[in-house]
Specification:
This protein is mainly alpha-helical. The chain has a domain of 67 residues. Helices cover 75% and strands 6% of the residues. It has 15 helices and four strands. The strands form two sheets. A two-stranded antiparallel ribbon has the order 1-4. It has a two-stranded antiparallel ribbon with strand order 2-3. A hairpin with a 5-residue loop joins strand 2 and strand 3. The protein starts with a helix and ends in an 11-residue tail after the last helix.
Amino acid sequence: MNKLKRKEQMKEYRKANRDKLLEQMKEYYLANKDKKKEYNKKYHKANKDKLIKQMKEYRLANKDKRKEYFKEYRKKYYLDNKDEFCRKRKEYYLANKDKKKEQMKEYRKANKDKIKKQKKEYYLANKDKILEQTKEHYLANKDKLKEYYKKYRLANKDKLKEYYKKYRLANKDKGQRKYYQNNKGYYAIKCRNRQYNIKNRTFGDIKTINEFYKNCPEGYHVDHIIPLKGVNEKGEHIVSGLHTINNLQYLPAKENQEKYNKFYGEYYTI
């Protein structure tokens, strides 16, 4: 009982005189530095397995605590020595530029999905901040960026064309729906204009034309062989077709979408 009481008293004393005791220990260590080092060395050597076991048990028992402690410690140490870290990192990168590029390339290739997920999570968590930074950067470098993008597009014309084609095919429904929702007024005007054009260019039996539309096979569209407002390769309006049974045909949906209102006389004739 006295032992426990004494232990409790010592604990309270150390707590109340912490700074004083630390100062005393520091003074003692400095006065007996070599002696203390020699003693510690001998002790470690004699009790190596015991100390390793104790450290292992302690780490396992305090895993989360240690993780949090070292995280805060590294963060503080980095902020206190930020300039030095940046200088060393820059020097190392310049001295090992090709090696680092190759390493990063291999890492991105091996961790593609992981990196994509991290970027997405970071963007969602910092969306407003990123948008604000992007806006500020663009406004500060507007002319420079315009010139850069112009050069890039010219140098990578075919590559970009292929990329956007693949993207449109992969996100066809999603992109069209979103664009329609944002441009409902435009589509309403376009639809009215088309109805007006059809009405004013309709000749022949309306019932026969309607029947032709009703019998359109699945996966096909009804196409005007000569478009109602046909354009050439330059986008110039060159021909106006009629809404008649002789100017209608069934085309696979994909072909019709690709054709749109393009007219090259040698290909589309009636």
